[in-house]
Design goal:
By secondary structure, the protein is mostly beta strands. The chain is built from 1 helix and 6 strands; from the N terminus they run E-E-E-E-H-E-E. The strands form 2 sheets. Strands 4-3-5-6 form a 4-stranded antiparallel sheet, with no helix packed on it. The chain has a two-stranded antiparallel sheet with strand order 1-2. It is elongated and about 45 Å long.
Length: about 110
């Protein structure tokens, strides 16, 4: 298991006035490809997904990025924030909606949009 801490910042279009910020501290299983998630909106299941949907494993997209940057003379550094790709379609919650993502081993996260 690996423990990672960081800040998640998500700007919701069309303006940067709509910003969601959360502090994240999670312990990740060694094989992220096996991580599943159930998405709920207003108490109803709207989707399920698995991390394997990101190039077979989210770490594969991280390796691709590191290799691509290396070919261009760049690199990843400690503290860099990398988003490895979404494991699901994009959801568009509206004001008043409550959403929840429940992961197999990582726990769950929920919020209400105002």
């Amino acid at each position: 298991m690996n423990t990672v801490s960081g800040v998640l910042l998500y700007t919701m279009p069309p303006t940067s006035e709509n910003v969601f910020v959360a502090f994240v501290k999670a312990t990740f299983p060694r094989d992220l490809s096996l991580e599943g998630v159930v998405y709920e909106e207003n108490g109803q299941r709207v989707a399920t997904a698995a991390a394997a949907e990101v190039l077979g494993n989210p770490l594969n997209s991280l390796a691709w990025l590191a290799n691509a940057l290396g070919k261009l003379g760049g690199k990843l550094s400690a503290g860099d924030v990398v988003m490895t790709g979404s494991i699901s379609k994009v959801f568009r919650p509206k004001a008043g909606d409550a959403v929840r993502a429940s992961f197999t081993r990582l726990g769950s996260v929920s919020c209400r949009f105002v």
